[in-house]
Amino acid sequence: MPPKQKTIALMGFRSVGKSSVTIQFVENHFVDSYDPTIENTFQKNLKVGGQEYTLQVIDTAGQDEYSILPQSYFVNIDGYVLVYSVNSRKSFEVVKCVYDKLLDMKGNSKNCPVVLVGNKNDLTNDREVTTAEGKKQAEEWKVAFLETSAKEHQSVTEVFNRIIQAIERAEGNEPEKGGCIVS
Ligand SMILES: Nc1nc2c(ncn2[C@@H]2O[C@H](COP(=O)(O)OP(=O)(O)OP(=O)(O)O)[C@@H](O)[C@H]2O)c(=O)[nH]1
User: Fold this and answer.
1) Are 160 and 46 contacting, i.e. CB atoms less than 8 angstroms apart?
2) Which of 5, 41, 113, 158 could form a disulfide with 166 if both were Cys (CB 3.0 to 4.6 A apart)?
3) For residue 157, what are the CA distances in angstroms to 26, 97, 146?
4) Is residue 38 part of a domain?
């Protein structure tokens, strides 16, 4: 089977680690410095449930609760990774606003595959959002939830595995359960 092409956007408040998660996934390293993103697109192959995927990963500029999302964020994007950082309650509030705006534009949640990600879970002493709160929000939205650490490469690949599964489900295909092989 030829690779399927999917486009995924990472969205969320500034400095939550969208670029770090993307770079850890695509290039397998962690960038300690903070360089605000305008917008970058990366490409990466990933095998999920026996199917090869070519992913375009769009690392967006950070949003806040007042951001007007550009039209380009609603067309030609198959799935959304909504990122907050567990050490910032503000970023958790912003991610809810971003979700509401996405849903407004997409019409309903069936058209809007999402994975909710609480990044920086290595910062145990600075935590402001509990795992239970993230989980509860994801259950309300009926989406997958993961806590990650881009710094410690924890659950990063799993994020992309889960968003592909969500996209396939939204398209009416239930992908086989199984390992995910990164190439
Ligand atoms: N401790 C820790 N720091 C992280 C983690 N992920 C990112 N950071 C740091 O957080 C800062 C912001 O990370 P970025 O990846 O640039 O965040 P961003 O969401 O892309 O930011 P914008 O481009 O402004 O939207 C950087 O200093 C990163 O090194 C993580 O998992 N753990």
Assistant:
1) yes
2) 113
3) 9, 25, 11
4) yes
Which of 14, 34, 124, 154 for mutating ligand 1's site (highest number of atoms within 8 Å of CB)? 34
Task: Output phi, psi for 119, to 5 deg.
Answer: -90, 170
User: Does residue 99 lie within any of the structural domains?
Assistant: yes
pTM here is 0.94
Going by pLDDT thresholds of 50, 70 and 90, the confidence category of residue 183 is very low
The verdict on residue 182 lying in a domain is no
**pLDDT tens for each residue of 50-82:** 999 999 999 999 999 999 988 888 888 999 999
Specify the ligand 1 atom closest to the Cα of 83.
Answer: 19
CA–CA gap between residue 4 and residue 12 (Å, rounded): 26
Question: Cα of 7 to ligand 1 centre, how many Å?
Answer: 22
State the residue range of the domain holding 116. 4-170
- Looking up residue 15, the CATH number of its domain turns out to be 3.40.50.300
Going from the Cα of 177 to the center of ligand 1, the distance in angstroms, rounded, reads 31
Cβ atoms within 10 Å of 131's Cβ, excluding its own: 13
Closest CA to 12 of 106, 105, 114, 113: 114
End-to-end, the C-alpha distance of the chain in Å comes to: 16
Does residue 72 contact residue 39 with C-beta atoms inside 8 Å? no
- Number of domains within the chain: 1
